[in-house]
Amino acid sequence: MLIFLDIDGVMIPAASWKPTPNLDDDFPQFSMKAVSNLNQILIETNASIVLTTSHKSRFSTSEWESIFKARGIDVKIQKLDDNLNNLDRKGEILNWIDKNWNYEKFVIIDDDKNLNGLPTEIKEKLVLTKSLVGINEEDASSAIDMLKKRSLVAA
Ligand SMILES: [Mg+2]
């Protein structure tokens, strides 16, 4: 199972008047609530992460795993390709699915409303967070339900 995970507006609530401090690894702290809600999803589903954030190219996947670990999240991480063609988030995700998807279950957790324009069968797997809040408990239970739903496609 995969979680396509954004960071800004998901793990770090957007609040430009109050910049989030960086930790020693030069990346901002995550919201404690978002960490606990994401961990709830990981505990219940054993999913791994595909990072979609625009920050993805700043670090290698093993550096990202350390960054998440330092914030209390122990998970295997891969990421979307570097966005050399300036695709929007929707285009980046569709591109990755087209090239890499192995019929495993997935959810997309993001605050980018343009993702509402995803094709229906993929949009069904979208959990749109509130940018100022990040992943809340309701988002976490939606994601868990989507990941545990019995697949109609034989994999
Ligand atoms: Mg975002």
Task: List the keywords.
5 helices, 5-stranded parallel β-sheet, 34% helix, alpha/beta, binds magnesium ion, Rossmann fold
Which class of secondary structure composition applies to the elements? alpha/beta
Oligomer: single chain
Relevant CATH superfamily = HAD superfamily/HAD-like
In CATH, the topology is named Rossmann fold
Average predicted confidence as pLDDT: 94
Taking the alpha carbons of the first and last residues, their distance comes to 12 Å
- Approximate strand percentage: 5-15%
Number of helices: 5
Catalogue the unreliable spans: none
Work out the helicity level. Answer: 25-40%
Rg, Cα atoms, Å: 15 Å
- Supply the CATH class: Alpha Beta
Tertiary shape: globular
Largest sheet: 5 strands, parallel
Tally of DSSP β-strands: 5
Strands side by side in the biggest sheet: 3-2-1-4-5
Give every kind of bound small molecule, once each: magnesium ion
Concise synopsis of the structure shown:
The chain has 155 residues and is α/β, with parallel strands linked by helices. Helix content is 34%, strand content 12%. It is globular and about 40 Å long.
Please give a structural write-up.
The protein is α/β, with parallel strands linked by helices. The protein has a single domain (2-148), classed as Rossmann fold (3-Layer(aba) Sandwich). Helix content is 34%, strand content 12%. The protein contains five helices and five strands, in the order βαβαβαβαβα. The chain has helices at residues 32-45, 61-70, 89-100, 120-123, 137-148, and strands at 2-5, 48-51, 77-79, 106-110, 126-128. Strands 3-2-1-4-5 form a five-stranded parallel β-sheet. α1 runs parallel beside α5. The protein is globular and about 40 Å long. 32% of the residues are buried. The mean pLDDT is 94. The site of magnesium ion has 7 residues, from loops.
